Fold this sequence. Notes:
Layout lengths: L4 H16 L2 H10 L2 H7 L1 H15 L5 H9 L9 E3 L5 E4 L15 E4 L8 H28 L1 E2 L2 E2 L4 H26 L3 H26 L10 H13 L4 H15 L9
Antiparallel strand pairs: 1-2, 2-3, 4-5
Helix pairs in contact: 1-4, 3-4, 4-6, 5-6, 6-7, 6-8, 6-9, 7-8, 8-9, 8-10
Amino acid sequence: MTFDPELQLLADSLRTTMTGASGAKLDAALADLGWLDMLDEIPDTAIPLVFRLLGETGAQAPVLNDVVLREAGAPGGGTVPLPYAGGSWVVWERTDAETSALDDDLPLRRVAAGEPVAVDAARQALGWWLVGTSRAMLSLARQHALDRVQFGRPIASFQAVRHRLAETLVAIEGAEATLQAATDQPDDLASLLAKAAAGQAALTTARHCQQVLGGIGFTAEHELHRHVKRALVLDGLFGSARELTCEAGARIRDVGSAPRLVDL
């Protein structure tokens, strides 16, 4: 993404904030930076920027609640039940109660089914979060490939490693392009496909980066496992890549043709 100087300054401020604060302090810091105002005034810029940086930094904040509430026409800053994989529902809020998510850092717990919510903007937001998480995993694997030496040379010089990293980058760039298209030309099918592409890219990234990192990638001391668990949880919210791909196929089959989503 290309930023003008003001947006670049905002991106730097957000990255610094997400890296230096966590929990309720991060929530307050994002509020002080004007997150809700940005969501109202420049959502097409704020959502990709904030959620992508959440993924890249490994931070978490309940900003998805604000996106869902805004799309429903309600003020932000509250909590809302979110559809989750397998027909269950979760609520995202900071509490001392035990979480039911794979990632203990994510404040998610199961609740009874809530009212239907608008999903297009939320799927796009989650897609950007997944892209950011994928880029974080790729960065870890790339650095490891440059640092790890076998047979007298970095493993980044081995063709098999380079192919895995290249395939990962292609998947991420493709997902980001799909998300940008859904942002530029909003459409429920475009948002669905963008979320599916981002989820599949994150799963592809996790698989390849784990292979590049080898044994160290399985350890709790390495950062990869945090991003992998985050990707699995986020992929499930508002439909996993597999579920959304099936849904898109069913829609196209029922209509009998595929719509033009992007003018090339």
